[in-house]
Design goal:
Distance between the termini: 83 Å
Helix content: 40-55%
Shape: globular
Number of strands: 13
Order of helices and strands: HEEEEHEHHEHEEEHHHEEEHEHH
Oligomer: single chain
Radius of gyration: 22 Å
Number of helices: 11
């Protein structure tokens, strides 16, 4: 009787493990292996890996050389003039199919100029600043840079995640820092990704972080944002824009994606609390000869005409990352800007 019970318990345990593995392989976000890129001098997503994203939207991203997605790698290797679209998770767009992301939508309509994206969750404006010369060394046909800003939070001094590069005041400066992958992730992330063992990874990470603290975790707290006057904000942004201009010989464009329309407490908010600050930042860019694309009216019009939110997915509320509509609006603004730009 005991032996039969043990068999039943053992069989049930094995079935539960297999069921958990099968479900997590389909419905859990994938783990992304990282590797050292000697040409860039930094850690990037491993070539050949596939990032599966499920918690918001549903898409797979195949990784090419230098941490770029496969389509971006193809653009980089081409001899066509190109620019880099920089950003954080909003520009990365792993929530939507690669063909529906802003850079590829732009490429589908442009013959003389192409784009590829360098983006990742948590990246800051200071990270872009230090990475620009690294990526420019990869090809002499990179003609400029477009920086995607979702709201102005990313360009506020002192707002960066702790392990990332920083834009700071007193004195005004840009400080380089890197979020290095742990030794454990370098050793096992490829294995976890290949065999879709994300459920075991999440279990280990929860135990290590909350109970035993076996591994050192990156601090995710953000630094306190300084309360700057309009004069101080003007000085900070003028310094930032001028620093970027001196970092590259190519063109520079900031794309502003508004934080509205947004869903707050069950209602749609369309009034942008950043409007005054946005006008200030836009004027600084224009005075410095730097491009500025404002998507405020495009987002407002898209919602008013079709009540389509630029954020949100079938499995997530309309408060997160850009969906296919949002990516399309970004691409349309780039198409319009570069079609009228004299080169």
């Amino acid at each position: 009787m005991l032996k039969r019970g043990s068999i039943h318990w053992g069989g049930g345990f094995i079935f539960a493990c297999l069921f958990t593995w099968a479900v997590s392989a389909i419905f859990c976000n994938g783990v992304m292996p990282m590797s050292w890129d000697s040409e860039l001098g930094m850690y990037v997503r491993s070539e050949g890996a596939v990032l599966r994203w499920r918690s918001e939207g549903w898409a797979d991203t195949r990784i090419g050389a230098h941490g770029l997605n496969a389509s971006g790698d193809a653009v980089l290797k081409s001899r066509i003039p190109k620019f880099i679209l920089w950003g954080d998770s909003y520009a990365d767009g792993v929530q939507v199919d690669d063909s529906l992301r802003a850079a590829n939508l732009f490429n589908a309509s442009s013959q003389r100029l192409k784009a590829f994206t360098v983006a990742n969750g948590g990246l800051s404006v200071a990270d872009y600043y230090f990475a620009i010369p690294r990526y420019e060394r990869l090809g002499n046909d990179i003609e400029g840079h477009v920086i995607l800003l979702v709201g102005l939070e990313d360009v506020l001094p002192g707002h960066q995640v702790a392990c990332h590069s920083r834009f700071l005041t007193a004195p005004l400066r840009l400080e380089e820092s890197a979020c290095l992958p742990s030794k454990l992730s370098l050793e096992y992330a490829s294995l976890v990704s290949r065999f879709r063992l994300e459920s075991l990874f999440e279990l280990y990470r929860s135990l290590a972080k909350y109970r035993f603290r076996l591994t050192a975790m990156h601090a995710e707290e953000r630094r306190p944002v300084p309360n700057l006057s309009k004069t101080e904000l003007h000085r900070s942004w003028a310094f930032l824009v001028d620093s970027f201009k001196r970092q590259t010989a190519g063109f520079l464009v900031f794309v502003y994606v508004p934080i509205v329309p947004a869903l707050e407490r069950g209602r749609i908010v369309t009034v942008n609390p950043e409007e005054e600050s946005k006008i200030l930042f836009k004027r600084i860019c224009q005075d410095s000869g730097v491009g500025f694309i404002d998507l405020s009216q495009a987002f407002k019009k898209a919602y008013a005409e079709g009540e389509h939110m630029p954020r949100g997915f079938f499995n997530a509320p309309p408060t997160g990352h850009l969906n296919a509509d949002g990516q399309r609006l970004v691409a349309a603004s780039l198409i319009e800007y570069f079609s009228g730009r004299t080169r």
